[in-house]
Structure formats: structure tokens, C-alpha cells
Amino acid sequence: MKRLIVNADDFGLSRSVNEGIVLAHRRGILTSATLMVNTPGFRQAVDLASENPGLGVGLHLNFVRGRPVSPPGSVPSLVDARGLFFSGGGAFLKRLFSGRIRGIDLEREGRAQVERALDAGVRLSHFDSEKNVHVLPSLMKVVLDLAGSYGIRKVRYIREFGFSRAPGQALKALFLSLACRLSAGRVRRAGVVITDRFYGICNSGRMTARRLSQLFTGLKEGSAEVMVHPGFVDRELEDLEGTMGRYYINRRREGELRALTDPRLPGEARRLGVRLISFRDL
């Protein structure tokens, strides 16, 4: 059986992103989303998740944008003088690889984010993260500990090797895939469930209906996840870049939304024997 999870990152970022994600689920092929709990659209996303029980909802762990859920003073290695995360994957990686980020701070903030989602009544299906930093070995350890503690034993696992019109994205996919390989044994021993394949970084923000159809055609037996970023773009979302850092994906969200709601895709999936599922179905 060919099983495909179509997962939208950034659920909870803003009202316009939330509305795009729900539209892609109701009228398109989107099956899953991952929730950010420290962003302005969190409460609305929780309400929308309750109204759309067919949408699987995981946790989009966020250590790189906005304000932590924990008191900033309790996670000092993660925040700047304003009490904010360092606004971007590059700044986070520099601090992580130079040893300036403490594992205890990552664990404390990770648990605070899980607790906020659970306290809001969200039944979490899986974990992934902003900028996919969870695949780095030191963070994967934190995520696997969270998976065991809370019984949420499904995690995004990246294995994507390919070409891209944006060479930087292909290199990023290679780097993250190799990082996952470093944790393969630990993931297996933890009893965590992962998909057989992953797509979405090489074509991040460029997921057209044609590419999705090609993905359906080339899909092999087993399970796969494709990462997407649908949404509408409004002034609120643009203004968030002032405090949360630049989102290059913002100018591409509406294009991905159009792709996911292309009326030809559901029939194409059925014709090719592709079953659209969420992480809850793994």
C-alpha cells in the first residue's frame, strides 16, 4: 500500500496561515499539520483543530522564533537580552555547534511547549520542528525523550536526496538527511515510528500541483511524508517578521495553497493507489 502524509508546518503562526491550512484540508489533500504554541495564532489554531477532527495535529517544536513558553530566565542559553529566541536557523546552529546552548534548556522548553498544547486539549500525533532542527543529534535526543515521556511516538525523519532549482535547498536536504542517519540507531531503539520516505525540502515553497502529481506517480510502497507551507499572506503575517525573523516562505504560501486545493489531485491519488493519511494512521 502507498500511504502519504501531507503535512503543513506553521499551524498557529497567524490567522491567515491557519485559514490557509484549514482550507487546504477541507477542500484539498492536506491531512496533517504541526502546531506552533508560542505564536499569535495558537489559540485560533486549537479551535480550528477541534472543528476539523479529520486533521491530524502534531507539535512544531520551536526554538528559533519568537518568545519561549518557559520564563526566559529559565532557558538563558536559548534567548537574547530581550528574552526572545535568536530569530533564525543560522543563529541557532551557530550557538548550538559552539556549545552555547544547554541541553537542559532545550528539554525544559520542549516540555513547556508539549504541556501548552496538551493543556489546550490538543491530541498530538507527532513531533517535528521549526527549521527541522530536531533532526540534529543533540535535539533528537530531547525529542525522543519527549516522545517516551508523553507517549507521542511518531517523529518526522528526513531522508531526501535530490536536485532543486534552489541549490541551497538541496544542500539543506542533504545535511538534514545525514543528520538523521546519525540518530538512526537511537530512533530505532526508542521504538519511534517514522515514515519510509520524506519530501519537501528540495522544493520548499515550490510544491505545485504538477510536482504533487509527479510525487504520486513515483511513490513506492510504504509510507511517506511531504512537507508543505500553505497559507494566506496579510499584513499581520508580514509584521511578524519584525519580531520573529524573515520567513522566505511567506511569499510562496498562497502558491502552495493553490496546489494543494487543485481539484484534480484527489482523483489522481485514488487512480494511482495512493492513500492519503495522517501520522495518526501510521
Keywords:
282 residues; single chain; alpha/beta; seven-stranded parallel β-sheet; 11 helices
Description:
The protein has 282 residues and is an alpha/beta fold. It has a single domain (2-281), classed as Alpha-Beta Barrel (TIM Barrel), CATH 3.20.20.370. Helix content is 42%, strand content 13%. Strands 1, 2, 3, 4, 5, 6 and 7 form a seven-stranded parallel sheet that branches. Strand 1 (2-11), helix 1 (15-26) and strand 2 form a beta-alpha-beta unit. The two termini are 12 Å apart. The model has no long low-confidence stretch (mean pLDDT 95).
Question: Topology, please?
Answer:
Layout: E1 2-11, H1 15-26, E2 32-35, H2 42-51, E3 56-61, H3 89-97, H4 103-119, E4 127-129, H5 137-150, H6 167-182, H7 184-189, E5 197-199, H8 209-218, E6 222-228, H9 235-244, H10 253-260, H11 265-271, E7 274-277
Parallel strand pairs: 1-2, 1-6, 1-7, 2-3, 3-4, 5-6
